Amino acid sequence: MRLFENITQLIGHTPLVRLRTGIPPNGPRAYVKLEFFNPTGSLKDRMTLHIIKKAFREGRLKPGDTVIDNTSGNTGSALAMVATLFGLKAILVTPVKTSQEKIDLIKSYGAEVIITPEVNHDDPESFYAVARRLALEKGYFDLDQYHNQDNIEAHYLTTGPEIWEDTDGQVTHFVAGIGTGGTFSGAARFLKEKNPAIKAIAVDPEGSIFAEYIKSNREVVASNYKVEGIGSDVVTKALDRQVVDDVITVSDRDSFNRARLIARTEGISGGGSSGSVAFAMERIAAELGPEALIVGIFGDAGIRYLSKCYNDTWMQKNGFMPVFNEKVTK
Ligand SMILES: Cc1ncc(COP(=O)(O)O)c(C=O)c1O
């Protein structure tokens, strides 16, 4: 028998699938960890379950309490799903650029959604500031994914070990986008403890502040970018700079076109940030031989972005329409 008592038992143990697009045939082996196999379709299920379970264990949460966080969408559905199982009420604060599919998904789990304008973190109207203020004023449990060290711990305990075990310890390069930094930091910390020679390479969107912060410790002003889930306009405590060996910046255009290309060539439909990771993997692979084994994180699925990067009109309107312009409709 293979029976599960509740949906959270299906979180994690996501598959590693070979990636060939952009990887030289005689070059390294490259695999992507498909986090859209998690129940709500993203890597955020891991962090949310871990933080909520730990808070219950330590008596910081009880049924009937309200939990809140800011989200670019994926944490929202993850928290909303976990909250229903633990008898909690969930409130998610998200910026206006979040796709309608993601907002509707959060609501489908019974959570409340507050939409805020597209402004920087320090603005009192930002999704970040509104979540902190409501938590403080109303006494809600603040998931605080940007700074919560249990976000890192979730990936140290699950994502990292899974990559190590599934590659029989052969992984040489780990590549992930950084939004809060939790996934990257937790998995990289675990992998480097196992083998300090493993290189951990972070992926940051053009316009985000992380790359400059990692390289030169400077906090620059962010500019707008369209890729969702990765990048930030503020330094986060869930990013452990000690475990970053390098950071690669990828543009919206390259991210979206790469995600579309991989869907059409390999049948793996990731979100825009999966395109960013795959594009960075190509750059890394170009420098490596067949002895290397690269693992990249695909954070969520393309189905979440049908009105965005998988929509030709949206791509054209934003000036991202692919060089690769297929007219045939199958
Ligand atoms: C959709 C999505 N969200 C978030 C992230 C980043 O996760 P974290 O917030 O743990 O840095 C990624 C990383 O690839 C992602 O693809």
Characterization of this structure:
The protein is an alpha/beta fold and 330 residues long. It folds into 2 domains: 7-39 and 158-317, Rossmann fold (3-Layer(aba) Sandwich), CATH 3.40.50; 44-144, Rossmann fold. Helix content is 36%, strand content 15%. The chain has 11 helices and 10 strands. Strands 1-2-10-7-8-9 form a 6-stranded mixed β-sheet, with helices on both faces. Strands 5-4-3-6 form a 4-stranded parallel β-sheet, sandwiched between helices. Strand 7, helix 7 and strand 8 form a beta-alpha-beta unit. Helix 5 packs across helix 7 and helix 6 (159-166) packs across helix 7 (182-194). The chain is globular. The N and C termini lie far apart (40 Å). The model has no long low-confidence stretch (mean pLDDT 95). Pyridoxal-5'-phosphate (PLP) binds at residues 42-43, 74, 176-184, 229-230, 271, 273, 277, 297, 299-300.
Major β-sheet strand ordering? 1-2-10-7-8-9
The molecules bound to the chains, other than polymers, are: pyridoxal-5'-phosphate
- Outline: globular
Tell me the number of strands. 10
Tell me the number of structural domains.
Answer: 2
What structural class do helix, strand and pairing data support?
alpha/beta
CATH topology of the largest domain, by name, is Rossmann fold
Radius of gyration: 19 Å
Low-pLDDT residue spans: none
Output the helix-strand order.
Answer: EEHEHEHEHEHHEHEHEHHEH
CATH class of the largest domain: Alpha Beta
User: Main sheet, how many strands, which sense, barrel?
Assistant: 6 strands, mixed
The number of helical elements comes to: 11
For the residues shown, what is the average pLDDT? Answer: 95
